[in-house]
UniProtKB/TrEMBL annotation:
Taxonomy of the source species: Eukaryota, Viridiplantae, Streptophyta, Embryophyta, Tracheophyta
The protein, known as: Voltage dependent anion channel 1
Organism: Actinidia rufa
Transmembrane segments: none
Family: Belongs to the eukaryotic mitochondrial porin (TC 1.B.8.1) family.
Pfam families, per the entry: Porin_3
């Protein structure tokens, strides 16, 4: 069993933030308690369990009417089943309820998901065409039970070079989106330049453009990040 205390000296609004971790009181189990001083409503208790074929995480805010979060997944290399649920004890209602069933093989993963507390059904697949150029195609069909609306989206990606990726997608509402994604340099090795390693690991989105096709018009909106 390992007890770990973390006391950062600086935190937002100058409130000391403390994390207490109890590592493996039982095999695969971890308990984390975090809170700010003197904010009595900031306390949070999280319990994690990790197994070879399953993982569970549950957290609860230490308040009078807390929100309880639970997520878990079971599966193997060939597929899995997972869920993500949040329950508000004050209102007695679920604020989030998502479930996903996935199937995986070497180059064709697929999944079926129920999101938005059962209102949305999503089915998607992803197929690797060429591992050498990271070329792939994918598709997703989504159905909303509340609006009885179907959305079909297809997309593709292709690596122009080891640092540059081009992605594009279009749906049945004639909305298209393309992304040119570039990484300035290869990712740093662990321990190199710790102050900027997170910056170097982020892919810089050079240009994102959206295209909405109407009857005889094409409208572009450019976004740079």
């Amino acid at each position: 069993m390992l007890w770990a205390f973390d006391h950062p000296t600086e935190h937002l609004m100058h409130q000391p933030f403390t994390t207490i971790t109890v590592d493996e009181p039982a095999s695969g189990l971890k308990t984390i308690l975090s809170f700010k001083v003197p904010d009595q409503r900031s306390g949070k208790l999280e319990v994690q369990y990790l197994h070879d074929y399953a993982g569970i995480s549950s957290s609860i805010k230490l308040t009078a009417n807390p929100i309880i979060n639970f997520s878990g997944v079971v599966g193997t290399n060939g597929g899995g089943l997972g869920t993500d649920v949040s329950f508000d004890t004050k209102t007695g209602c679920f604020t989030k309820c998502n479930t996903r069933l996935s199937f995986c093989n070497a180059d064709l993963p697929a999944s079926l998901a129920v999101n938005d507390k059962g209102d949305t059904l999503n089915a998607s697949y992803y197929h690797t065409v060429s591992p050498l150029t990271d070329t792939a195609v994918g598709g997703e069909i989504s159905h909303s039970f509340s609006t009885n609306e179907n959305t079909l989206t297809v997309g593709t990606q292709h690596s122009l070079d080891p640092l540059t990726m081009l992605k594009a997608r279009v749906n049945n509402f004639r909305k298209a989106r393309a992304l040119l994604q570039h990484q300035w340099r290869p990712r740093c090795q662990p321990g190199m330049l710790p102050n900027i390693v997170n910056v170097l690991q982020v892919f810089i989105q050079l240009v994102i453009w959206n295209c909405v096709i109407f009857r005889n018009e094409v409208a572009f909106s450019w976004i740079t990040q």
